[in-house]
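Quarterly update, task 2.4: NAP-bound model.
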Amino acid sequence: MIWGGYDPTPKKEYVIEKRVAIVTGASRGIGRAIAIRLAADGRHLVGFARNAEQLEDLRVEITAAGGSCEMKSCDVGDGAALAAAIEEIAERHGRLDIMVNNAGITRDGLILRMSDEDFDDVLRINLRSAFVACRTAARPMMRGRFGRIVNIGSVSGIMGNAGQANYAAAKAGLIGLTKSIAKELGGKGLTANVIAPGFIESDMTSALPAALREAVLPAIPLKRFGTGNDIAAAVSYITSDEAGYVTGQVLSVDGGLGM
Ligand code: NAP
């Protein structure tokens, strides 16, 4: 039956039964935790990142735990390469169900000293790559009449953060991108949401000065830094079939830091 032009019947035969999920920046940190969780959820997990050795470690870990996965070396800053990698996965499996745009970098500095290059690099890796991935992933998701797009934002994109004008701009941009996609593609069975982490233990935050880490902790109502698993649990929910009525939202997973 067709309601308002929307035919929920998948147009294409699926090559594999499992839902196929791509996670960018899967080699370490938050992305690695998300990848492990989605594989444990029964997804066929496809991890993208540049570091092939770390990706291979992840592949071994997921496979040893009985999960299904494959890894792809990919620089998300190269839009053509990113789009080609996503298209190849969707074509080979006959489906793409979940796209998690997690890869991110920081190039912190006060605005007066921030170079054009540091601004552009952060926008290219943190925002433009998500745009390219969403645009590319949308077609196979529409063909399958199902899609879960998740963009990993940040508390900085909601509140701003001194020393992170580039990063906060990119993360705030992700919110506008995600809400627009949610409105454009909701009628095709796709949802798009932002998960906004607070201060999470990873390579990104371990590089920060100890004094800064100590200054942040009292401002977190739950009195601890977050873990990759805290974020992975939220991604697990928002990419589930049961979350089919949740779209265009920004879910903060920040211990209350952004309240
Ligand atoms: P991380 O430990 O530094 O890991 C970053 C990940 O992104 C790595 O897997 C890295 O893989 C990948 N990446 C970076 N540049 C890439 C590129 N050009 N192409 C492909 N992959 C690339 O950072 P994290 O803390 O896990 O952060 C993950 C996400 O959460 C980011 O979007 C970050 O902004 C966001 N976030 C983090 C925090 C926090 O407190 N940690 C808070 C809010 C939001 P390769 O180096 O192998 O390419």
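Highlight for this quarter: The chain has a mean pLDDT of 95.
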